[in-house]
Write a structure and sequence with these properties.
Number of helices: 7
Shape: elongated
Radius of gyration: 25 Å
Oligomer: single chain
Mean pLDDT: 76
Structural class: mainly alpha
Helix content: over 70%
Low-confidence stretches: 9-17
Distance between the termini: 54 Å
Length: 179
């Protein structure tokens, strides 16, 4: 939401402190954190049907977030092949003074960015995970017994309308072909 937009603005406003290598590192770390959270969820053995259901939904959401981060990582790697090569060459330069001066330049930019936005988190992965654990991922009525029983009224209503709409579409097609 709003915090993510702030992070994107901060990332776009900084120049070399958000280098391609740094971006790839952050995305890779985020992906690993989502994977660790999935493993932690799988280690826990829920005792009730409700806990099992909520755990499955949390795992599904963590998998979605992990997949999104992995896709972002792959697209960043694909789109920045040349800049990645240039940055790697700059880091492996034979002149240690140049590498050290680049480090201090980047460090100064990073400190300046932090002074401008001190409360801005670098990654909101931990916040996403904590939010998933605090909130109930699915809202059920008491009649459904937290997913143990399915409310077929909604399902049958949707099915009736979809069958009705399909039948009308077939009838319209047949009536057009008969003319």
């Amino acid at each position: 939401g709003e915090r993510e937009r702030e992070r994107e603005m901060a990332a776009s406003s900084s120049s070399s402190s958000s280098s391609t290598l740094e971006t790839l590192r952050v995305l890779g770390e985020d992906w690993e954190r989502y994977q660790r959270a999935i493993v932690d969820e799988l280690k826990y053995r829920p005792k009730t049907m409700r806990e099992k259901l909520f755990q499955k939904h949390r795992i599904a959401e963590l998998l979605r977030m992990s997949k999104d981060r992995a896709q972002e990582l792959n697209s960043t790697m694909d789109s920045s092949d040349e800049s990645l090569r240039v940055e790697a060459e700059a880091l492996t330069n034979d002149n240690p003074n140049k590498v050290l001066s680049m480090f201090y330049t980047d460090f100064a930019e990073l400190r300046e960015q932090y002074k401008r936005r001190p409360a801005l988190p670098m990654s909101d992965v931990d916040e996403d995970i904590a939010h998933l654990r605090r909130e109930e991922p699915v809202a059920f009525t008491g009649e459904e017994r937290y997913g143990k029983h399915v409310d077929f009224e909604c399902v049958s209503h949707a099915l009736r309308h979809s069958v009705w709409d399909a039948a009308h579409a077939v009838l319209r097609t047949v009536s057009v072909e008969c003319r």
